[in-house]
Amino acid sequence: MFERPDVGERAIIVHIDFSAYYDVEDLDEFRELTWSAGVEPVGVVTGTRKQPSSRLFVGTGKLEEIRDAVSANNADIVLFNHSLSPSQERNIEREIQCRVLDRTGVILDIFAQRARTHEGKLQVELAQLEHMSTRLIRGWTHLERQKGGIGLRGPGETQLETDRRLLRERIKSIHKRLEKVRRQRNQGRRARTRADIPTVSLVGYTNAGKSTLFNRLTTSTVYAADQLFATLDPTLRRLELPDIGPVVMADTVGFIRHLPHKLVEAFRATLEETTQASILLHIVDCHDDRRDDNIEQVENVLAEIGADEIPMLQVFNKIDLLENFSPRIERNEEGVPVRVWVSAVSGQGMQELFDALVERLAEDVVHHFVRLGPVDGKLRALLHEAGSVIEETHRDNGDSVLEVRLQQRDWLQLLSRADMKEHDVMLEQM
């Protein structure tokens, strides 16, 4: 599944606007997808039509135009910026005598090139096999007949039936292996939950700068490039935040318009990191003309995987591409940070992002002025040991007043270790 020729391919792009459909694909984005797949677009065929033809997707006149473009540009493949049915792909190939690939096939090819970990490769192969299972007959029509030869004559499977059976067995095998990966991920998440370590998951449209920001925040070296789907494999890194302590940051696969359902299903194990996060950092390319549309597409995918209820902080990235723009935090009516403007490349706004993230995660942080007597020495020692004491003052009667700031869960744990209850502690208003 992952062996590709080293030579680049020349492609004709086909983009049709259908008046009956309002949610059309974006031609510029498809050009970027084509380049990301390592294919050189040498020609574009555009047109308008009320609705797709059930047999050829396009009309006979447009098909003739595609055939002429293939011949004139010596193209190796025709890429449709649409989803084609298996029969439409076969019929178009038969008519123009050139290989045809639809939008889903292009995205799958990019994923096959980008997958680096064992899990990522399994997920991509699963999506490819499920996509291919409906297209097996293409190129194998000469094998429709039964096998012949010594020991193979008589009733038996056709070659096509054999291929389909092997495909089903391979898909079943990959499902089992991915289920094992999913169980391992769940164990890791349960361990983090037991330790009460928050998870911060980076989500966003593909090429919004998630991996660059991830590297900047965690001083990591995750592969980052100015291309669509540079990141496929989820990466987890531990990060220390002031007042919060350790958090786990997760870099995830980018989203795109009409992300094929096969890919959403195949990458469910990866996307579960998103659905189980304490907070989502939604990275947005603020310089992109399609910014608002991209935000909507990401929110649609989050709703599809059941992550739309998780608290979110928007991070408008790439302010270095805007003129005279400074990093800032935007808040809602309640004063809660909802958006931060940063540049992952230059590092502008990183302190603002840390501050906003800490503030959002610190919604369950307690800030107390605790009055302790001489008999409360155990709790006083535990608070100092945990590094939670901001300031300590002493009274004439021997009492101490400690200004403490720590997570609610840590506060309750320290009280338990000191054999005290919350109502046993004297709190002062300062």
Automatic annotation (TrEMBL):
Domain Hflx-type G: 198-365
Pfam families: GTP-bdg_M, GTP-bdg_N, MMR_HSR1
Sequence similarity: Belongs to the TRAFAC class OBG-HflX-like GTPase superfamily. HflX GTPase family.
Superkingdom in the source lineage: Bacteria
Entry's Gene Ontology molecular function annotations: GTP binding; GTPase activity; guanosine tetraphosphate binding; metal ion binding; ribosome binding
Lineage, highest ranks first: Bacteria, Pseudomonadati, Pseudomonadota, Gammaproteobacteria, Pseudomonadales
Cofactor dependency: Mg(2+)
Annotated localization: Cytoplasm
Binding site for GTP: 204-211, 229-233, 251-254, 317-320
One term under GO cellular component: cytoplasm
Subunit composition and interactions: Monomer. Associates with the 50S ribosomal subunit.
InterPro entries in the cross-refs: EFG_III/V (IPR035647), G_HFLX_dom (IPR030394), GTP-bd (IPR006073), GTP-bd_M (IPR032305), GTPase_HflX (IPR016496), GTPase_HflX_N (IPR025121), GTPase_HflX_N_sf (IPR042108), P-loop_NTPase (IPR027417)
Naturally occurring in which organism (per UniProt): Marinobacter confluentis
Name of this protein: GTPase HflX
HAMAP family: GTPase_HflX
Binding annotation for Mg(2+): 211, 231
Biological function: GTPase that associates with the 50S ribosomal subunit and may have a role during protein synthesis or ribosome biogenesis.
Record keywords: Cytoplasm, GTP-binding, Magnesium, Metal-binding, Nucleotide-binding
Record PROSITE patterns: G_HFLX (PS51705)
